Structures are given as C-alpha cells and as structure tokens.
Request: fold
Amino acid sequence: MPHSRAATSTDSADAIVVGGGLVGSAVAYGLARRGLNVIVLDEGDVAYRASRGNFGLIWVQSKGCGAPEYQGWTRLSSDDWSGFASELKSETGVDCGHERPGGVQICLTEEELEIRRAMMEQLRRESAERAFDYQMLDRAELKSLVPAVGPQAVGASYTAYDGHANPLYLLRALHAAITQRGGRYVPNARVIDVRPAGTGFAVTAGGHHYRAAKLVLACGLGNKDLAPRIGLNVPVMPVRGQIIVTERLKPLLAIPNITVRQTVEGSIMIGESREEAGFDDATSAEVIKRLADRAVRMFPLLKDVSAVRTWAALRVMSPDGLPIYEQSPDYPDAFVCTCHSGVTLAAAHALHYAGYVADGRLPERLQRFSSARFDVQAAA
Amino acid sequence: MFKPLPDSRAPDVRVIVDGREIMVSADLSVAAAVLAYAGGVTRTTPISGTPRAPYCLMGVCFDCLMEIDGVQNRQACLVPVREGMRIERQSGKRTVSP
Reply:
C-alpha cells in the first residue's frame, strides 16, 4: 500500500523504531523476524548518517578494556555475524560481503607494541563468558601473515574474532529484510514529536502520525534530544572520523588491519582518526595527510596507489565510549539503543537486543550499559 | 563517427597501443586517440570483466582507465598523447605487488 503524505489518519504498528541507520534497522529487523509489525522512521539526506560513512570493520580486539560486559557483548555479536549474514542473504539475496579472516593491529614502534601487548593481556584477564585468546606477532610472523607490510612494521596483535563487511550492502539488506517481513521503512520522516499516549506512544514525523505499543529510539546523535521526552537520558556526542578510499586493486591484504583494510571489491580503505569537531563533518588535509602517511609506513606499496575519494562521518559517542541500552523507568515499553559500532554490533542488535525489546525487559547482562552510569553524585 | 576539428593542425605523434604503433594527432588525449584510432575499448571492469569505452571524457566517470607508460588505472581522458607513449588496456583491477 503506498504511503500517502496527505493522510490525516494515524498509522499503527506493534513497534516504532526511530532511526533507519544500521542500529535502528538491525533492531527493526530483529523485531520483524519475531513477528512484530514494525515501522522504521528515517530522517532523510540531511541526517548525519554515520551508517553511510563508516569503515566496515567487525572488530573485537580493541574493545572493552575495563568493561568486560562490553567485550563479551562485542564478542557475542562477532561470533553470531556469519549466521546473521547468511540469514540476510537467504532472506533478501543481498550479500553483505562478510568475512572473518581474523584481524591485526599493526604497530610501528616497540613502544606501541608494548602498549598493545598490555591491552591484549588485560582483555584476556578480564574475559568472562567467552575466553579471549590472542597472539602477539613479531615482525617475521606478521610478514608471513601479511606479506605487504613494510620494514617499519615491528609487530602486531592478532585475534581470530575480527572481520569486516560492506556496511552499505548491510544497510540495504536490512531495509529489504524489514520490508519482506511486513515492516515499513519510511524515509524523509524526521521525528518532530514523540510522546507517551495511552498504553503506547504517539509519534509525528514527515507530516504524518504514528502510534505503537513499543518505541525504540535508535537515531544516533538525534537520540540526545528525543530521549528526555520518554524518560531516558542519552548524552551522546559526535566524534569525527576521516576515511580515504583508493582505486581498486587486485587482492593484496587478506587480513584487515584496524586502520587499513581491503574491501572485497578491491579498494583499500584507510581510516581511524578521532576528533571532536562538533557537527562539522568535513575532511581536513592535515588529518588525511597523517592517515596516508601512516598507511604508507605500514604498507609502502600504497605509495603509488591513487586515492579516489575522502570523506568524514560523525561517530555517535557516549562519554565512556560504550553503547547505551536502556529501558525507560517511566515508560517501560520505550527503549534506547545507541553505539558507535553499528556494523560490529548489528548481529547482537538484531538477534538479541530486539528479543529483549519484544519480551519487554532488558536482561541483567545489559544493566552495565544503562545511562545511570553517567549519574555521578556531586561532591559534598 | 569521430572526426578531427577542421582547424586541427597538430603534427602526428607515434604511440604504441597494446603493442601496435599508430600515428595520432598530438593535441589529443589518450582516450580520444583510442576512440579515433584504436577501436575505442579502454578497459575491462574489475568485477564482471565487461569491456568499457571512454564515456564522460572529462575526468569524472573512470571508464577510460588505461595503463600508460607502465602506470595502471590512469584516466586516459586526462592524459595528452606524447611521442613514444606506451598505452595498454586496463584489464580489471590494478596490480600492486609486494
């Protein structure tokens, strides 16, 4: 049934998901595969859309130091990703290009390598439900695993849990899967009002009214403004990342490094910068130069490879970098789901988080991700 | 189909396209020279291997990628021909060897 913008009636569903990026779409797909009728409201081309600018890693080995619950949750998602990608492919025919060849974090100095080793050892020490195993590779071991590394690469950390996918195909697959399961994806629907109404919620977006028994806020940086209206606190901030993509090359890097990976299509992506730049999502020559310089020090043969495009996108960052998962204490059918790892956590959001929303209760394991952790009492 | 402009008086230069020597006007881009004198196909695509010809001729479409003097994936519409230039069709993705 075509959606009429002029309609004055109200559309109803079992659940409304605000946000049609990777986080919202994964949760909406998860709800739809449990039989709920979902509506996804997506803002449009003016939105910041981290899901269209991200790097595409499914990454475990740098996450959750000092936060074992986050390590465990990330690992769960990474372990579930292969099945998740197969499921999406069989439902929609879209191949997300998921691969899990393991991953390396290459170090260019002995000092970097020592810091890395300490971090990996901490992750192993803190691992709980799934034992965390890693290897520190010396230069020769790294060279045999990743022959393209140059003489400045002194070593690397390696785990088998890391991988990557094509984030744009993932988003397309999720949108297709939602629709095929009877859900509705509504573009150009910026939410201008959201409020509790009766036993559910009323949302106004794109000149239209929607109602549902359940509500999930998953609109990235937009969560901050909408959350207080339903009794939630989501203090997220933009953290800019810049990316370079090169021309397509024959296979060169079989294993992704956290800052340099080769896509299945052949391009090399170079990323990993962090800046607090407000809502400015422009690139800067200074950062792009630093990214290129470090990539060439790792892989000298990139020296003559042409960059075809650069861009920047805004990560959705909480004060401690961990996701925020919370059920509204005032309106328990309202939830928030936000993180800066929409690709890595897509499987966990679709296969697990959506189930908790459907059942109406977040489990103990997600208590650690409540925004209550930011409520610090004032000193006397 | 393609004809030189009537006021084109540039002298010819010798270039080698896929091993074959041809004489072309010195004021042409490599893409224009291949269209006019060498069958038009500049590359095959990285994924399906389909042959492609120059399309936009202004540096935007990346369909005219060729190997020019040993450098792969160059946009042939942005490179003027030069005496003795070696031009090869780009076959799929660029190769970079460790």
About this structure: DSSP finds one helix and seven strands in chain B. Chain B has a mean pLDDT of 91. Chain B touches chain A through twelve residues (CB under 8 Å).
